[in-house]
Amino acid sequence: MIPELRSQIPPTMITFTPTTADRILQLRHQVLRPALPIAEVIFAEDQDQKTRHYGAFNKQSEAICCVTLIPSTWHGEAAWRLRAMATAPGWRNQGIGTGMIRYLFKDLRASDQVRPIWSNARVSSAKFYRELGWREVSEQFENGNAGLSVQMLRERPINERWKQTKLFTTEIASLRSQIA
Ligand SMILES: CC(C)(COP(=O)(O)OP(=O)(O)OC[C@H]1O[C@@H](n2cnc3c(N)ncnc32)[C@H](O)[C@@H]1OP(=O)(O)O)[C@@H](O)C(=O)NCCC(=O)NCCS
Description:
The radius of gyration is 18 Å and the shape is globular. The relative contact order is 0.13. The model is unreliable at 164-173 (pLDDT under 50). It is built from six helices and eight strands. The protein has a domain at 1-111: 3-Layer(aba) Sandwich (Aminopeptidase), CATH 3.40.630.30. Helix content is 32%, strand content 28%. Strands 1, 2, 3, 4, 5, 6, 7 and 8 form an eight-stranded mixed β-sheet that branches. The chain has helices spanning 3-6, 21-32, 96-110, 126-131, 158-163, 166-179, and strands spanning 15-19, 52-57, 63-74, 77-87, 117-122, 135-136, 141-142, 148-154. It is of the alpha+beta class and 180 residues long. Coenzyme A (COA) binds next to helix 2, strand 4, helix 3, strand 5 and helix 4.
């Protein structure tokens, strides 16, 4: 399905915004590790300045969707690790998760921080990510409390990658000289 068509929530009802770990911790806990102590959903990187937390909030300012991006690497290249994506049960399948991913990319683009994004995704949510441009890059594996998982990667779109490489500039210069 085209991602644009998946997000059908009237924008006035929901606010997508960068946020802090504290504001999304309860939602993370409720959705991802409800049977375990809340400490299980606190990450060592949560308070790092470069970690990015995003939340979607309803009219009552309650967190209804969240996701966290942690600076990481992918095969030696700067990357993000996506963790703890969660939509509150009553708000699922309405395009909010899709809206969150679209918001996240908008924010990364605005700050020139688009990089490959990898994640250890629950197999049950792999289709969600696949529809949004991720692909499986590992066999399925048991991932502790998260259960059956698969590593997924969303590569940087090629035009965004080109913008930042010297090769691009060199190639353009070479093409220009050929045309001239
Ligand atoms: C995975 C998760 C975050 C998705 O959040 P969401 O807000 O439901 O996401 P969306 O509504 O954008 O998309 C979910 C599905 O609803 C469908 N959908 C979106 N808008 C829709 C609409 N208006 N009408 C009907 N279906 C719709 C999408 O096509 C999508 O289907 P797919 O998963 O088969 O591709 C959510 O299911 C969740 O929190 N799951 C439990 C925790 C989890 O597994 N997190 C991921 C950890 S790796």
